[in-house]
Specification:
50% of the residues lie in helices and 8% in strands. The chain is built from ten helices and four strands. Strands 2-1-3-4 form a four-stranded mixed β-sheet, covered by helices on one side. Helix 1 crosses helix 6 and helix 6 packs across helix 8. It is globular, with a radius of gyration of 18 Å. This is Glutathione S-transferase family protein. It comes from Plastoroseomonas hellenica. Pfam families: GST_C_2 (PF13410), GST_N_2 (PF13409).
Length: 234
């Protein structure tokens, strides 16, 4: 059984999509990051970095319990566990390259673009411009790569597509102010429409719908999400 530690944000959404695509049974464990539940000792024992997603596989290699954190690591682990969505062996290096481009580039810069456009106080014009433009640059790299391609790697659906879907799904927030955020990226737009139309995507979107996560952006939320902005009292 997979215990899946989840909050309805882009990186956990990738794992929800894999689990639904693979038909893997899982137990959903909501982690309300706006309440600071990611900082509790019990969760830090699973992910010392205090971030979602994370999983615990109670039937890991050799029947032992295994924890995995970071969305890219989880996708690789689940791909290897199930033997699915890893593409051809000959494309392995290409798959890893794009998976980590998404996990260390497009995702983080998109997240920072969202932060400075929606959450940061005014007066951060340089940072806002920096992260918005870098997010756009990463979109352009991916868009150029997708010319004439149906999938990010090779000729079949892989964990790279699953990873890319998680953040491109939030393009309207990353590229704030654009009526059609993917208009300037026609190859991403075509690719995303194809991925988004898969039946498992609808099921992935329903993961966690039965849990009421906090949505109020108050002082508790800001301290929970951005603890480095609040140094401990001396």
């Amino acid at each position: 059984m997979i215990r899946f530690y989840f909050h309805p944000t882009p990186n956990p959404a990738k794992i929800a999509l894999f689990l639904e695509e693979a038909g893997l049974p899982f137990e959903l464990v909501p982690v309300d990051t706006s309440k600071g539940e990611q900082h509790r000792p019990a969760f830090r024992a699973i992910n010392p970095n205090g971030k979602v997603p994370a999983i615990v596989d109670t039937d890991g290699p050799g029947g032992r319990e295994v924890r995995v954190f970071d969305s890219s690591a989880i996708l690789i682990y689940l791909g290897e566990k199930t033997g699915r969505f890893l593409g051809r062996p000959a494309d392995r290096a290409e798959l890893l390259s794009w998976l980590f481009f998404l996990g260390t580039g497009l995702g983080p810069f998109s997240g920072q673009a969202v932060h400075f456009q929606f959450a940061a106080p005014e007066g951060n014009g340089y940072a806002l411009n920096r992260y918005r433009r870098e997010a756009e640059r990463h979109y352009r790299v991916l868009d150029d790569h997708l010319v004439g391609r149906d999938y990010i790697v090779g000729d079949e659906y892989t964990i790279a597509d699953i990873s890319g879907w998680g953040w491109i799904d939030r393009a309207s927030r990353v590229l704030k102010g654009e009526a059609d955020p993917l208009l300037a990226f026609p190859n991403i737009k075509r690719w995303f429409a194809s991925i988004d139309g898969r039946p498992a995507v609808a099921r992935a979107r329903d993961v966690g719908k039965g849990h009421e996560f906090k949505r109020v952006n108050d002082e508790e939320t800001r301290r929970a999400l951005f603890p480095s902005n609040y140094p401990p009292a001396l």
